[in-house]
Design goal:
Layout (H helix, E strand, L loop, with lengths): L2 H6 L2 E9 L9 H10 L3 E7 L2 E8 L1 H13 L7 E7 L7 E5 L19 E3 L1 H9 L3 E5 L3 H4 L2 E3 L13 H6 L9 E5 L4 H12 L4 E5 L2 H8 L7 E3 L1 E2 L6 E2 L9 E2 L6 E2 L1 H4 L19 H19 L8
Parallel strand pairs: 2-5, 6-10, 7-9, 9-10
Antiparallel strand pairs: 1-3, 1-4, 2-3, 8-11, 12-13, 14-15
Helix pairs in contact: 2-3
Length: 309
């Protein structure tokens, strides 16, 4: 997609989160759901005692209406968001969910409003991670790091964010250097990850403000220390420098991103399997996936979207 195509893509995508004490979070669910539906906005928003998190997409005016509503709430007056664009609607429905945590790490009493690492703007990130006194840690999961990572970063290879605290506890070598620099997709996981690291006795803990998305938006490709694409949790699958839509597809059997090369694998069957999951699924599973894929094909012929995707 060219830069001009990015600018004219019809759907605005807004990624947002905000940690704040929100005891009335349940009361916001229905008004938010209704407002999004009225404005043609789809995606997922999570509400919890600790704040809000999510990504939504829709026409520009619809997204602005939702953001304006959120910022009229006293708790979200300082809400920040990140924008990108999509050539087609990247979500199938709108969901406003009530959760225990807006990002699940599973460690009690971690509050980024009280303790958090030092924010580093994208323009200053390269200098920090190039410092030999810095250990750089990717806090994302293995299927995300598989398609892109900062040069020299440590990949914990976690399956879920819940595994991250134990990974830290089991890696005493992280104390060997004075600085810890952490990053994630949009910044939210690092809020909790850096708070946890501070609790574990790490002193100089830094995290990338706005996450990979902000870095790819602001840092020119020729100056970048990012290799690959950034996984995103919508139907675009990945984005690249300038937040251009990436080339990855999604295996709807295992939800892993796959490259154009992996599509040519003998283990790839659309909606049924890929080289990542073929050997971990049974023939019974694949039969079920084929039936689902058949229903998707029929829905396409009718000009409809099959919600099962």
């Amino acid at each position: 997609m060219t830069d001009n195509a990015i600018q004219t893509s019809p759907y605005l995508v807004a990624a947002l989160y905000h940690f704040v004490s929100l005891p009335r979070y349940e009361s916001l669910q229905q008004p938010l759901q209704a407002l999004c539906e009225e404005n043609g906005v789809k995606g997922t928003l999570l509400l919890a005692h600790e704040g809000i998190n999510g990504t939504i997409a829709g026409p520009d005016a619809g997204i602005w209406s939702v953001l304006a509503f959120l910022r009229t709430q006293p708790e979200f007056a300082a809400l920040e968001h990140k924008e990108s664009r999509a050539s087609k609607m990247p979500f199938l429905r709108m969901k406003v969910k009530l959760k225990k945590e807006i990002v699940t790490m599973g460690v009690e009493n971690i509050d980024p409003n009280k303790v958090v690492g030092t924010y580093v703007d994208p323009v200053d990130w390269n200098a920090l991670i190039s410092d030999p006194d810095t250990i750089v840690i990717d806090t994302r999961n293995d299927y995300e790091t598989a398609i892109g990572i900062f040069r020299g970063a440590v990949d914990p290879k976690t399956k879920t964010f819940r595994e991250f605290p134990d990974w830290v506890r089991n890696n005493p070598g992280l104390h060997n250097k004075p600085k810890i620099a952490m990053y994630c997709t949009g910044g939210i996981r690092c809020e909790k990850a850096t708070a946890f690291m501070k609790e574990q006795g790490f002193d100089e803990v830094y995290h990338l403000r706005g996450g990979i998305l902000k870095y790819l938006e602001e840092v020119p490709r020729e100056e970048s220390l990012w290799d690959g694409a950034c996984f995103v949790f919508d139907e675009r699958v990945s984005v690249e420098h300038g937040l251009k839509e990436g080339e990855h597809k999604l295996c709807h059997a295992c939800r892993n991103p796959i490259t154009a090369e992996e599509v040519t694998s003998p283990y790839y069957e659309e909606g049924v399997s890929c080289s990542n999951c073929y050997h971990t699924r049974s023939e019974e599973d694949r039969l079920r996936y084929r039936q689902r894929q058949h229903q998707i094909a029929l829905a396409k012929q009718r000009g409809q979207k099959h919600i099962g995707t």
